Amino acid sequence: EVLQSQGYSIQEIHRVDPNFDVRGQIYAKSIDTLRTHWLLGIGGGNSGLVLGEDERGAMLNASNLLLETWLNYGVLGILSLLVILGFLFFRLTKDALAGSEKHLLGLTLLVHLVIFNLFNAGMLMGVFFLLLAYLVTLTFEEAHAVSLPHDFKVL
């Protein structure tokens, strides 16, 4: 009412959201494909062959990290990803609660990337796996640190 009294027009527009419709079709095709390929998936990088292309000719993805992984790699792939993410989450949380700032940063990055990739699997997929590799090395860094004896001499 305040904006209208200042001369602004407020209108409600009803239109079909193409993004919503496309995602609905992608989810339906993904679930339909998983009915026959649920165990081993359709193979890495093949989701675009099943899901189709956008108006630019770029292959579509499942728009969800977990669904994309299951579609491409099957139950074994999704379980592997969940185990890795679960391990990293609990290990980074434990170390962050113990006062490690770099593990707190790693935990924050992990949570943010997982959340972003739940809703757009293709957007940050390369960054996701790069960070995943970094987080794995971070969690094992202290466990496998090498210390040399005090009397060690380099020739």
What features would you describe in this structure?
The protein has 155 residues and is an all-alpha fold. It is 63% helix and 0% strand. It is built from six helices and no strands. The chain has helices spanning 2-5, 18-37, 47-51, 65-97, 101-119, 125-141. Helix 4 packs parallel to helix 6 (125-141) and helix 5 runs antiparallel to helix 6 (125-141). The model has no long low-confidence stretch (mean pLDDT 82).
Tell me the radius of gyration.
23 Å
Distance between the termini: 83 Å
Any idea what the shape is?
flat
Average pLDDT level: 82
What is the N-to-C succession of helices and strands?
HHHHHH
Total count of helical runs of at least 4 residues = 6
* Major sheet attributes: none
| Contiguous uncertain segments of 5+ residues | none
- Total strand count, please? 0
Helix content: 55-70%
Q: Which percent band covers the strand fraction?
A: under 5%
Output the structural class. Answer: mainly alpha
Sequence-ordered SSE layout with sheet pairings:
Layout: H1 2-5, H2 18-37, H3 47-51, H4 65-97, H5 101-119, H6 125-141
Essential attributes:
155 residues, mainly alpha
Question: How would you briefly describe this protein structure?
Answer:
The protein is an all-alpha fold and 155 residues long. The protein has six helices and no strands.
